[in-house]
Amino acid sequence: MQLTDREFAWIVSYIHTNYGINLSQKRVLVTGRLQNYLLRNGYKSYGEYIARIEKNPKGQEAVNLINVLTTNHTYFMREPVHFEYMKNVALPWVKQCAASKRDVRVWSAAASTGEEPYVVAMLLMEFFKLDTNWDIQILATDLSTRVLKHAMEGKYLAEQIAPLPDRWKKSYFKRISEEEYQVKNELRKQVVFRQFNLMDDIKFKGLFHIVFLRNVMIYFDDNTKKALLERIYDHMENGGYIFIGTTESIDKTATQFKYVQPSVYRKIN
C-alpha cells in the first residue's frame, strides 16, 4: 500500500488544522502506524480511508485517525523534579492562597494513560491528608480516547508502578492478578478524565492553580504554542504554576508567564 505525496499532504494538513500537531517531518511514522491500521480494517488504499473521513469528519474513523497517529509515551514519576517542586513550593502556596475556599484545582493537560494525574492525585492526598475539608479537583485531559479509556480503568503492571514509593503502592493500589494492579477507587474519584483538543477554547469552570503541560508542545509550531499558552494563562489563578517538559522551553518574549526555573513558569500579574 503506497502513500502518495498528495495523500500525505492531506493527512498533515488535516491533523495540523484540527489538532495543531505538525507531522510534516513524520512521514515514516505516519506510514508505519496508519498502514497497519488500514490493512487490519480492510482498506485497500489511503485514499479510500481519507474519503471516509471527508464524508463524515465527526465519525469514528476521524477519531481513530488521531488515536493511531498520536504518541503517548509516559510513565509513573516521569521528570520527578516537578513533583518535588510541586510538593515543596507550589502546594504550600496553594494552601495559603486558597485557604478561604479550601479547594485546589490542577489540570493535567496531556494525561495520556493516566500516570501523571494519578501521581498528582497521590501528592495532593498526602499533602492535604490532615486537612480533610479541602476539595481536591484534578482534571485530566487528552486528545486520544484510546489512552483515556486505559487511564480511567487505572490498571497497570507491577513493573509500571515500581518507581512509586512503597507507601503509595500500599495505600492507593490493589492487586488484581499476578502481575497487575489497579488504582483504588479512593484515588480514582479524585481525577476527572475528559477528551479535550488543546486547539479548542478552554471552557472548564474555575481557574487552575497548577497546570501540567509536559512534552506536548514539541508537536506544535510557534504560533500554535503561543495561542495555547495565552488560553491557559487566562484560565489560571494569579500566582499559579505551569510545568512543561524538561526538554522544552517557552519563548519569554512570546508569553506572559514568568520564568521560575527550567521547565517551571508562573502567572504573575
Description:
- With 269 residues, this protein is an alpha/beta fold.
- It folds into two domains: 5-69, Chemotaxis Receptor Methyltransferase Cher, domain 1 (Orthogonal Bundle), CATH 1.10.155.10; 80-266, Vaccinia Virus protein VP39 (Rossmann fold).
- Helix content is 43%, strand content 19%.
- Strands 6-2-1-7-8-10-9 form a seven-stranded mixed beta sheet, with helices on both faces. The protein has a three-stranded antiparallel beta sheet with strand order 3-5-4.
- The longest helix has 18 residues, at 80-97.
- The radius of gyration is 20 Å and the shape is globular.
Instruction: Give the helix/strand class.
Output: alpha/beta
Provide the CATH architecture of the largest domain. 3-Layer(aba) Sandwich
| Shape annotation | globular
Our count of helices gives: 11
**CATH topology name of the largest domain:** Rossmann fold
| String of helices and strands | HHHHHEHEHEHHEEHEEHEEE
The main sheet orders its strands as 6-2-1-7-8-10-9
Main sheet overview: 7 strands, mixed
Please write the CATH class name of the largest domain.
Alpha Beta
C-alpha-based Rg, rounded: 20 Å
Instruction: Classify the beta-strand content into a percent band.
Output: 15-25%
Low-confidence stretches: none
